[in-house]
Amino acid sequence: MIISNSNYFRSHRNDLRRLLWTLCALVFVISMITNPRLVFDGALTGLTAWWNIVFPALLPFFIVSELLMNFGVVHFMGVLLEPVMRPLFNVPGAGSFVMAIGFSSGYPIGSMITARLRSQGLCTRVEAERLMSFTNNSSPLFMLAAVAVGMFNNPSLGWIIAGAHYLSNLTLGFALRFYARSDTEYIPGSPPRNRGLISQAFATALQVQRKDNRPLGKVMGDAVRNAVTNLLNIGGFIILFAVIIKLLTNAGCISTIAGWLGIFLLPLGFSPEILPALASGLFEMTIGSKLASEAAAPLLQQVVAIGMILAWSGLSVHAQVAGMISETDIRMTPFIITRVAHSLLAGLYTYVIFLCCNPLETAATATTSAIKWQDVSVVYLNMQLFLCFIISLLTIISLGIILHLVSRIRF
Fold first, then answer.
1. 348 within a domain of the structure (yes/no)
2. Contacts 24+ apart (CB under 8 A), 69-73
């Protein structure tokens, strides 16, 4: 009886969820019909961003990742780096390939490769959720070129933003090794070695290649076709959310969300001018980053806001990730929780790194007057750094508690 009641409530909850999404779709369609000009401008903005930035930046990585997986490089790295990835992040050695591609290319390729590993039985569901949660990063090209040079005309800011972005995600990777450690699913590792680690890795890669009887031309053609298909899906999400942001801005929803964010951020010293950028960044990181760079706020707050936006990545990227893993049993809940933690840690790390690397600018923004770095109290600086450390520690502990509770829920 208890089981039947549980199934009833779960089915009822799913029905309510479907009705809610149907209502949202109807409201969206009505908004499109009544605001055709805004829809066209939003779609054009999204299409331009996808064609000029996303498509040329990600297409080579998508093709190369497909080829390397077909040629057994993932299996090679899985055997070779198992002794490193398992103790550090509690993921199989094949996760090193996801990590390398994810950290060097950008959203959402990490989730795509993680889904492939899961579908090929190279990792468990929990391991896939760990991998996907800390290997999805903003593109280094976007942070170093588009943001630092294109938006700020200051290349040094790119290293601050990228350093904080990657460091905070690696911190989460270390913390996620404790996520769902009691999981019972197990995938056997490599058989006992009777040869060197490198020799066994090469043997594993050759074994994978022997199983794939496709000619080279077929392998390359499939890789290009799959890469273009995935990028078309990504382009659709980008255009869709660009239209949604246009409609929400016109309806005043972005201003309302900015007001809600101000309840938490204004007491921390954030300028009201930076709040609309953060509100837009909740939906799409490129638009949010552009607005943050143009906001009439101190440079420190602009950089911190962009660090938080890029770490959160936006609902547009979340939808892309959901599409990548839709044919697997990987859950989105750990990914979304981790993105919140990543945003908080990235903001803190950006603040600390900016404080250390740009002391004159930080002192100027903190006192709104032209003072010198040596006039700033060392005790005050140490208190700020200590506070950042405490908040970072509390963020990681909270993440661990939340993910532990999530791992015990049956979806």
1. yes
2. 69/97, 69/113, 69/116, 70/212, 70/214, 70/219, 70/222, 70/223, 71/205, 71/208, 71/209, 71/219, 72/204, 72/205, 72/206, 72/207, 72/208, 72/209, 73/97, 73/205
